[in-house]
Amino acid sequence: MKVFIAGVDGYLGWALAQHLVKRGHTVAGNDIFLRREWVEEVESTSATPVYSIDERLAAFREVHGVDLIFREVDLLDYPALREFLAEFQPDAIVHLAEMPSAPYSMIDQKHAAFTQTNNVIGSLNVLWAMREVCPDAHLVKLGTMGEYGTPNVDIPEGFFEIEYRGRKDVLPFPRQANSFYHLTKVHDTNNTMFACKTWGLRSTDIMQGVVFGTRIDAMGDDPRLFTRLDFDQCFGTAVNRFCCQAVVGHPLTLFGSGHMRRGFLPLRDSIQCLTITIENPPQKGEYRVFNQFEETYTIEELAQKVKEAGAAVGLDVEIGYYENPRTEKHEHYYNPDRQHLIDLGYVPTHDVVAEMKIMLQDLLPHRDRIMEKREILVPDIWWDRERHRAQQISPETTK
Length: 399
Ligand SMILES: NC(=O)c1ccc[n+]([C@@H]2O[C@H](COP(=O)([O-])OP(=O)(O)OC[C@H]3O[C@@H](n4cnc5c(N)ncnc54)[C@H](O)[C@@H]3O)[C@@H](O)[C@H]2O)c1
Description:
alpha/beta, 14 helices, binds nicotinamide-adenine-dinucleotide, seven-stranded parallel β-sheet
């Protein structure tokens, strides 16, 4: 198949491109290196070195024996995006090119407005370009499990049957996002669902859990082919951040009680699921939702697992409890479905401690790079600091 990856220079995109060419697909992609700039802006760096795009593309050709067709195109540059898609004529478009951090979107007005413009208009442009130049392509759109929030009932995959005042319908499950970033994904969901209904486009909207991991098999041992791994408060997701903290002997920065439960999955599972989705497209006009995670864990359970993995590689890992800068429930019900991908053949990794050991071993040689940025390991971007302090929001009062 011909697969277009929007955001191919990013954490998931760079890994996915390599996995897909190994399976015989032709891959093209765009990026404008915003992720590199954002991480610099928050005064951090990737724990694993990230090579220039020219070095990456050369290594891709040398090791995989094919070219990754790449163009530096902004999703907000509609004519350039449209032209690239018109020329490439993809069977599938995997849309990863969004600003992916909740804390970054909560810094101030400028960052919230940037996030919403980049993500919502970028995604809208993808829909319009598909309609105009490749209406039969399958859009694999990356959303997040964070779209649903933490409702006190089970979470289905996108839709649920409801009876209200004696009448029944199948409706979109309510979205209760908890940051301006997560809200962009909700807006994308509505726009994508509407485009499928109105124009007959086809799409799979992936509600993905939090991803962790340094590698997938397709990367081999060439460091130019490794993906990035961030550990700052904005772009370092929970387990990635914990593993980096573990290798430099910093306490793991658990927020609040650590009882918040979320869906998580290793990078290799994310790539496996995206590949299954691409290779099993929906019907024309169909909009479907897949929840994508290996398992749900509390943040505290994950910290304990990192501690266990650390002990296995000779690290004495300490767990620290920090004031939670986010406004969120600490004690809550959480039970999402994830059956659609299993039905299509997804085999979850399950042994996440083994995955964490691989991560720690990959990160240990880069201990100095993380050590240099040690001062950014404790979070200080608040959802609403004044209100939080005034109300003395504690794990008990946020139940
Ligand atoms: N990594 C996770 O844990 C996770 C979890 C759930 C959902 N997601 C979603 O998956 C997608 C990919 O995540 P990631 O971790 O690879 O993020 P990433 O930031 O590493 O990758 C996104 C890439 O898109 C590029 N990009 C952003 N805006 C662009 C634009 N306007 N034009 C061109 N390129 C642009 C960035 O430069 C970056 O390289 C995101 O949409 C994210 O919200 C990620």
